[in-house]
């Protein structure tokens, strides 16, 4: 990989892990510990190389029509920012985030960062060993969640009209990741491929066989059912009814009509299912409204750009 002499001097003994062309001869290079931004000689600036350490606590990206700004927040040590073309922002964030995650101990040495996705306030980083999720205005900060592939026992999908959910069953709890429909297939296939490779299998059926214990290895069970730690109910009427019904089911007492209790539980289950369907419908409606607003914003941006072009044409005459 050919690099300018100024970059070679700045690299020292480090190797280049990724290279992203910016504008003209400008280029961004990522090493295991730093991001280097090379600016070539121009009419308004001299040749320069600026280094940005990866030990950042926060990564922020702001986008304009032509130029985007990436800011690395080092906490008490302040912030450092650099500009890139907006069209190159996703290509830039992928290796930069990989370096920040490695420096912060989120990923291990030698762990591959396969893909990076950004959806509004959701950032997904797919590695060879885990899925990392961050929700918030920043691209990255300390408020993140890690889903190790070793803990995943199943992967399914819940499809919607605007957005769909990738559902990961883990040994701890169910993880749902909501993705716009136009990108859902890409995200699902990328996550599934990384998950299957981590388990040393080629497809879903082989994955399920690998994570499902043999009957001979299953732990012994007793007649007394343990309470499900994943159950959590709200304090509204439905939640209170569910809690009461579950208490009765686990400890019915001698005078309880089990047939009536079973009917009550089935009725409660159906009511909860109806509430979930209504909530899902409301969520889909909100997503459709958001998509419509995004389309309006895009149209306004296009019209504003046309106005700018007309103004430039008039001023040039």
Walk me through the structure.
This protein is an alpha+beta fold. It folds into three domains: 1-105, Pleckstrin-homology domain (PH domain)/Phosphotyrosine-binding domain (PTB) (PH-domain like); 109-213, PH-domain like; 235-316. The chain has six helices and 14 strands. A four-stranded antiparallel sheet has the order 1-2-3-4, with helices on both faces. A four-stranded antiparallel sheet has the order 8-9-10-11, with helices on both faces. Strand 1 and strand 2 form a beta hairpin. Residues 223-243 have low confidence and may be disordered.
Strand order of the largest sheet: 1-2-3-4
CATH class of the largest domain: Mainly Beta
Quickly give the CATH architecture of the largest domain.
Roll
In N-to-C order, the SSE pattern is HEEEEEEEHEEEEEEEHHHH
Rg for CA atoms = 26 Å
Q: Summarize the biggest pleated sheet.
A: 4 strands, antiparallel
The residue ranges in which pLDDT falls below 50 over 5 or more consecutive positions are: 223-243
Q: The CATH topology of the largest domain is what?
A: PH-domain like
- SSE class: alpha+beta
Shape: globular
Mean pLDDT: 83
Helix content percent band: 25-40%
Number of domains: 3
Strand content: 25-35%
Please, what is the oligomeric state?
single chain
Distance separating the two termini:
46 Å
Q: Kindly report the name of the CATH homologous superfamily of the largest domain.
A: Pleckstrin-homology domain (PH domain)/Phosphotyrosine-binding domain (PTB)
Total strands: 14
Summed up, the helix count is: 6
């Amino acid at each position: 990989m050919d690099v300018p002499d100024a970059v070679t001097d700045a690299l020292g003994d480090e190797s280049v892990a990724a290279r992203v062309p910016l504008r003209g001869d400008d280029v961004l290079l990522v090493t295991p510990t730093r991001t280097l931004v090379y600016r070539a000689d121009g009419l308004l600036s001299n040749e320069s190389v600026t280094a940005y350490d990866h030990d950042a606590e926060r990564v922020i990206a702001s986008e304009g029509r032509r130029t985007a700004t990436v800011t690395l927040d080092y906490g008490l040590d302040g912030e450092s920012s650099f500009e890139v073309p907006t069209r190159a922002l996703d290509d830039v964030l992928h290796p930069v985030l990989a370096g920040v995650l490695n420096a912060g101990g989120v990923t291990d040495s030698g762990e591959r960062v396969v893909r990076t996705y950004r959806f509004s306030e959701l950032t997904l980083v797919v590695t060879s060993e885990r899925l990392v999720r961050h929700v918030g205005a920043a691209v990255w900060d300390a408020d993140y969640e890690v889903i190790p592939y070793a803990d995943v026992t199943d992967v399914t999908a819940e499809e919607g009209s605007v957005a769909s959910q990738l559902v990961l069953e883990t040994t701890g709890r169910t993880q749902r990741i909501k993705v716009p429909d136009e990108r859902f297939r890409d995200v699902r296939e990328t996550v599934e491929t990384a998950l299957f490779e981590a388990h040393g299998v080629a497809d879903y059926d082989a994955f399920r066989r690998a994570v499902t214990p043999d009957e001979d290895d299953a732990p012994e069970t007793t007649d007394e059912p343990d309470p499900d730690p994943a159950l959590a109910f709200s304090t509204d009427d439905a939640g209170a009814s569910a809690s009461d019904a579950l208490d009765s089911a686990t400890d019915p007492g001698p005078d309880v009509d089990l047939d009536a209790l079973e009917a009550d539980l089935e009725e409660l289950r159906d009511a909860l299912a109806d509430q979930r369907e209504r909530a899902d419908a409301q969520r889909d409606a909100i997503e459709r409204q958001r998509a419509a607003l995004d389309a309006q914003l895009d149209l306004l941006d296009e019209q504003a750009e046309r106005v700018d072009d007309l103004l430039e044409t008039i001023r040039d005459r």
